[in-house]
Amino acid sequence: MSDTLLAIGTRKGLFLARSTGGGPFDVEPIQFSTVGVHSVAIDTRGASPRLLAGIEYGHFGPSVMYSDDLGKTWKEAERPPIAFPEKTEATLTRVWQLAPSPSEPGVVWAGVEPGALFRSEDGGVTYDLVEGLWEHPHRPQWQPGGGGLCLHTIVPHPTDPRTIGVAISTGGFYRSFDGGLSWEAANHNIRAPFLPEGAQYPEFGQCVHKVAMHPSRPERLYLQHHFGVYRSDDFGGAWHDIGAGLPSDFGFPVAVHPSRPDTVFVLPLTADVDRTPVGHRYRVFRSDDAGATWQPFASGLPEGPVHAAVLRDAMTASEAGVFFGTRDGEVHGSRDGGETWSPVVRHLPDVLTVRAAVL
């Protein structure tokens, strides 16, 4: 009988929740108490799963911890796992994303603040700066978004290790076809309405909130932007607005169904007024035709009024189901593609990231 593991990173600690055979989740005691956990990954590529957690020690700074016994014990590399070379004159502020490579055993990517990509070849224990992106001529012109100058999304190709995409707030979406040696901005058709008329489709500088890909159709990407929801059918070569039919095209997360590449989920928020769920009620919108049409689903979710947002990394879709966590410490899950929802846990600290896997 299969187990589902849910890893929930919060402003004050990590929570692991387990479910057996589709039953209710049992939430284990808090780990890294009072420590911010901004990124988590469940690496199931090996004989046994490895958990990774990007934590923030406060005045001790950020680090990456790993566990090979499902969170019973944690380890940290003897040297700082992620550190900028001295020549960069940069200091690590936060680890925003941890992404095991689906095509290279032992490789784990890390996205950090200030906007940079790191690569590990020892399963996520230690990392080296990807200098091709750091030295890109656009980088000095990237500006921090509301959350900082963060590389928050990593989209590795499922079978081709040479192809990888990243999203930087507010640099935009960048892609590499040579394993990270060189990079190009890939933001064609993404509108930046805060710019003057006639300059609203820049090469870079877009405020991308999240990007998602389905492994069976890697050329197709979905993007939640500050000012729209987009789809690309050529790995970012061009983007098409698919926000029509949504009550708001502002939001943070976007997730793709694990077995249906045309099925995508978003959770619209009221733009820049108060950034709360539209109508002060959680409604997950699902498209089954790659964004041509949208349907809302809210059965089992709180009827409201609710005032807590869902952050960019706090929604996930996997074989285990669809899950999202809120800024007031609730996590909700659906095992039927978003049709119905049930609470997983309440009264946690501010939820920053959620990941799920079937073990």
UniProtKB/TrEMBL annotation:
SUPFAM superfamilies: Oligoxyloglucan reducing end-specific cellobiohydrolase. It holds the Pfam family BNR. InterPro entries: BNR_rpt, WD40/YVTN_repeat-like_dom_sf, Xyloglucanase_GH74. It comes from the Bacteria. This is Exo-alpha-sialidase.
